[in-house]
């Protein structure tokens, strides 16, 4: 089975540019998570969706960040305008979250973002 | 709010020995899941083991076992017979039934030959 697919794997862009990160969750999973990992702040949950609906976006750092999930098989995380402090590894993860149970999250390989 | 605390930034273990990585948690949710993930130097996040808050028995998965002490709010990971390939960062995480996940800061494990 295909795992969580993220693209691009690496992105280098200049400050002020718009950045779009993409994620395809595992088929059949109904929850999707976006994380950011840095040395300073560790692994932070930015936002998560359940059945394509954003449930908690309290981790989104500021209005420059936005995330969408137009359907069950695709999500985007957008940064506009980007800043050097946004440089990090961004992970997407998916899981099959059903009432009364917990399932592990399956992570993509991450997008390594560098803002110059 | 929920929180995960991993008090060991770094740990060393001799190859073939067992090692315990500590994790304590805090949550007001009565139902939750505890997870351990491994992140090798290549960067991917690998799921290792899961423990549900209502599970009576400690979870085991091959060389991994989870020492779950609910009253103490601890969920320590035990790796038996350490291998060089176990050298990695290990994260403890909690997820509530609502889906909210929180990860600890991680413990870097180094296995010595």
Query: Which protein chains are joined by the largest interface, and how many residues does each one contribute?
Result: A-B, 26 and 24 residues
Indicate the overall shape of chain B.
globular
Total strands of chain A: the figure is 11
The biggest beta sheet of chain B reads: 6 strands, mixed
What's the total helix number of chain B? 0
Unreliable spans of chain B are none
Q: Kindly state the mean pLDDT of chain B as a whole number?
A: 94
What gap, in angstroms, lies between the N and C termini of chain A? 36 Å
Outline of chain A, from the CA principal axes? globular
What is the tally of helical segments of chain A? 0
Portion of residues in beta strands of chain A equals: over 45%
Helix content of chain B: under 10%
Strand content of chain B: over 45%
Radius of gyration of chain B: 13 Å
Task: Throw out a few tags for this protein.
heterodimer; A: 116 residues; mainly beta; 4-stranded antiparallel β-sheet; 53% strand; B: 113 residues; 6-stranded mixed β-sheet; 0% helix; 54% strand
Tell me briefly what this model is:
The complex is a heterodimer of chains A (116) and B (113). Chain A has 116 residues and is mainly β.
Can you put this structure into words, describing what you see?
The complex is a heterodimer of chains A (116) and B (113). Chain A has 116 residues and is mainly beta. Chain A has strands at residues 5-7, 10-13, 19-24, 31-38, 42-50, 53-56, 65-71, 74-79, 88-95, 106-107, 111-115. Chain A starts with a strand and ends with a strand. With 113 residues, chain B is mostly beta strands. Chain B contains no helices and twelve strands. Chain B has strands spanning 3-5, 10-14, 19-21, 24-26, 32-39, 46-52, 60-61, 64-69, 74-79, 88-96, 101-103, 107-112. In chain B, the strands form three sheets. In chain B, strands 2, 5, 6, 10, 11 and 12 form a six-stranded mixed beta sheet that branches. Chain B has a four-stranded antiparallel beta sheet with strand order 3-9-8-7, with no helix packed on it. In chain B, strand 7 and strand 8 form a beta hairpin. The radius of gyration of chain B is 13 Å and the shape is globular. The mean pLDDT of chain B is 94. The A-B interface holds A 31, 33, 35, 42-43, 45, 48, 50, 55-56, 89, 91, 93, 97, 99-107, 109-110, 112 and B 31-33, 35, 37, 43-47, 50, 52, 91, 95, 97-106.
